[in-house]
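Notes to self, Translation initiation factor IF2/IF5 domain-containing protein:
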Amino acid sequence: MKIPVNRNISDPFYRYKMPALEIKKEGKSGQKTILLNLNEISRDLKRNPNLILKFLSIELGSQTKAEKNSYKINGNFSSDLLQQLIYDFIDKYIICLRCNNPETFYIEERRDEVFRECYACGYKSKIDNKLKNIILKELESNTSDYYSKKEEIEYVIEEETITYSITNDNMFIRTNNFINELSLFRDDKQIEFVLPSLEHFLVEKEIENEVCFYLDILIKESLVKKSDIFKYFQGKSKVIDKQSSKKIRKF
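result:
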């Protein structure tokens, strides 16, 4: 079963999800608790499972062991307790403190200080000392498959060059850059190109499921009206699926 990455979200169409934690007990009277699907959870969170395991060890005051994709905690702990602690980890080390987006990555700034930066809004927040040294080692080794490396590419749209950020195989557009570049459409003569240009971008990058995220930005920036969105995407769009269509009706 998949559950929202953000514990405060109840929207069934929320796209950031992870598997609910599964455990089993080992030894007499369940002396050890095995985390059966920590790898799957880690992949969805884009964090090293050993980092999550270390956090659990600190919070529970219990020793842990990781070997060959097997993760164990000394002690008899319930799945509910461990699930809530994983949510605590997400709140402290993943979720952006400004926009609540879970698409964040770690960077080292100044001397031995680690920050998480948000792909959506660019906000940076300092990581506490509890896991800082472990994250620093991962960053310095530059070998982790779990920490996203930010790169920049250029994409030409309507003969204007726009800079985006990408991570691994997924593409994300930094909200602040997106808003700045959209200023070229504020001229009334250009406003008609906003939705076609957005659609072209979504199809080109194969991220059609992101349409509602970008439409919300367009509305907040007063670049389009809700009626324009509904009319255009109902009549012309190639990127709307049933779930997105339902969300657009709520704009």
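- Confidence is low (pLDDT under 50) at residues 148-177.
- The chain has two domains: 2-148, 159-250.
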